[in-house]
């Protein structure tokens, strides 16, 4: 049976990917995302006029799954239709994680110069966002004029930790590919400022002024607004072939502060990450924060020797808690709480939606790779069945509005991260460990694999042999 599963499960993921892709192609080709109920495309306002987010986000997934006809269609679109001369308001963060990350991975996996040329051209367009008094970039940039500004909703013109803190992996690779040190300089400057500034209880608040370089308010979260900043610390260390000691120290110090101030145990025995507002805890965990099981897992082995088992246990506990939140449709809400008797349950109607997010499955994938405990594959399979049952519609996959009711209401969006992350992590969960091995690759926060930068050439050749 197990032998059969080895083939059947990845094949199943591949068919889900093909179904998602075919419908995108049929109804939304060249637009950013598919609206599967109304059978049309969605452009949105995050990518500054750039198009084809689902294509760029899918390139590596298609390639890794061996869907070569589909990969070739995607590549051809990049060649003929990816126009980088757009003139709209883009989120620096979203363009970086999806477009820069997607093109970098496509280049490293395939060696096609086209992707390298495109990504370097795009990287240059992002640089003006860093022209601030501190060098901390603003969140929004006009890709044509280079003007940048802060999100209207961010307090007092501040920049967001998870946005300016989620550039490091891609920018270091941009320097590698372009031989231009400027990208690495920009992200090292962010790190320098963060190292210098005083941190309340060792924590990193979510809002920072790009003008004064001071925190704007003391709200700390491992979920939205904070999340991938922490992820990029440990991944920067791993991607540097474990030479970036500064990233390592910063990561373990941050994790210590998180454990001391945010990690909680519920009355029912579930370990969770609360949110912190100037010392007051909000006993709520976002779906986004569920990536932290995987993050703590991949960082466990490089922690202090006496802490390694503890980190692995903590990673398993958080992943378990996130699995607990996946009920009764076997899909999880956007946020769940641990107060007034709640145990990993969304108590507000407005928190009950699921938009095809990957974070819980991402943690299953890492924990499977680290422990080979079969429960992670079982949990992953549960999610596959639930996606098929509740999110598959005639023309693609859709998010749902309420994970607590089985009479499903669909949100009419097939998010591009469903193709780049959710389906890729599921595929990897059911594949052998030597497909994109963690010793050779780190995944950016949109699940685009980037190679570890080897410090000596001999290792480099060995890696290339393995990965090609
Ligand atoms: C993705 O774009 C990335 O994973 C990001 O870090 C968080 N949000 C979505 C997925 O939920």
Describe this structure in words.
- It is built from 16 helices and 19 strands.
- Strand 18 (441-443) and strand 19 form a beta hairpin.
- The strands form eight sheets. Strands 3-4-5 form a three-stranded antiparallel beta sheet. Strands 6-7-8 form a three-stranded antiparallel beta sheet. It has a three-stranded antiparallel beta sheet with strand order 9-12-13, with no helix packed on it.
- Helix content is 49%, strand content 11%.
- The two termini are 30 Å apart.
- The protein has 468 residues and is mostly helical.
- The protein binds 1-deoxymannojirimycin.
- Involved in the maturation of Asn-linked oligosaccharides. Progressively trim alpha-1,2-linked mannose residues from Man(9)GlcNAc(2) to produce Man(5)GlcNAc(2).
Descriptive labels:
single chain, 468 residues, mainly alpha, Glycosyltransferase, three-stranded antiparallel β-sheet, 16 helices, 19 strands, 49% helix, 11% strand, globular, disordered C terminus, binds 1-deoxymannojirimycin
């Amino acid at each position: 049976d197990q032998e059969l599963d080895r083939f059947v499960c990845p094949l199943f993921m591949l068919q889900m990917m093909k179904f998602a892709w075919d419908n995108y192609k049929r109804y939304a080709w060249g637009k950013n995302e598919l609206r599967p109920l109304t059978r049309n495309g969605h452009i949105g306002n995050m990518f500054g006029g750039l198009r084809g987010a689902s294509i760029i986000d899918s390139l590596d997934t298609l390639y890794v799954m061996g869907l070569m006809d589909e990969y070739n269609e995607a590549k051809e679109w990049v060649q003929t239709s990816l126009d980088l001369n757009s003139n709209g308001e883009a989120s620096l963060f979203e363009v970086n994680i999806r477009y820069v990350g997607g093109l970098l991975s496509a280049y490293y996996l395939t060696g096609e110069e086209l992707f390298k040329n495109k990504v370097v051209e795009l990287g240059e367009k992002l640089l003006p966002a860093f022209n601030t008094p501190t060098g901390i970039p603003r969140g929004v940039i006009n890709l044509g004029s280079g003007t940048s500004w802060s999100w209207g909703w961010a307090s007092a013109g501040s920049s967001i930790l998870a946005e300016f803190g989620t550039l490091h992996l891609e920018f270091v690779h941009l320097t590698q590919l372009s031989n231009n040190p400027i990208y690495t300089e920009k992200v090292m400057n962010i790190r320098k400022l963060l190292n210098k500034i005083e941190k309340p209880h060792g924590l990193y608040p979510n809002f920072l002024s790009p003008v004064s370089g001071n925190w704007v308010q003391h709200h700390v979260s491992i979920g939205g607004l904070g999340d991938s900043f922490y992820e990029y610390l440990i991944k920067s260390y791993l991607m540097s072939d474990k030479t970036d000691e500064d990233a390592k120290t910063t990561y373990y110090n941050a994790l210590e502060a998180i454990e001391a101030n945010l990690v909680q145990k519920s009355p029912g025995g579930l370990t969770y990450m609360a949110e912190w507002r100037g010392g007051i805890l909000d006993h709520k965990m976002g779906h986004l924060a569920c990536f932290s099981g995987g993050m703590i897992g991949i960082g466990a082995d490089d922690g202090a020797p006496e802490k390694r088992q503890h980190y692995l246990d903590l990673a398993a506990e958080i992943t378990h808690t996130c699995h607990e939140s996946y009920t009764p449709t076997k899909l999880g809400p956007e946020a769940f709480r641990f107060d007034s008797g709640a145990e990993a349950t969304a108590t507000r109607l407005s928190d009950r939606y699921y938009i095809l997010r990957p974070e819980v499955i991402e943690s299953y994938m890492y924990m499977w790779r680290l422990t080979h405990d079969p429960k992670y594959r079982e949990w992953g399979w549960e999610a596959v069945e639930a996606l098929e049952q509740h999110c598959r519609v005639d023309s693609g996959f859709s998010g749902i509005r309420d994970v607590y009711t089985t009479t499903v209401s669909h949100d009419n969006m097939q998010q591009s991260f469903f193709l780049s992350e959710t389906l890729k992590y599921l595929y990897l969960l059911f594949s052998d460990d030597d497909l994109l091995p963690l010793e050779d690759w780190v995944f950016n926060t949109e699940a685009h694999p980037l190679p570890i930068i080897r410090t000596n050439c001999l290792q480099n050749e060995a890696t290339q042999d393995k990965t090609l």
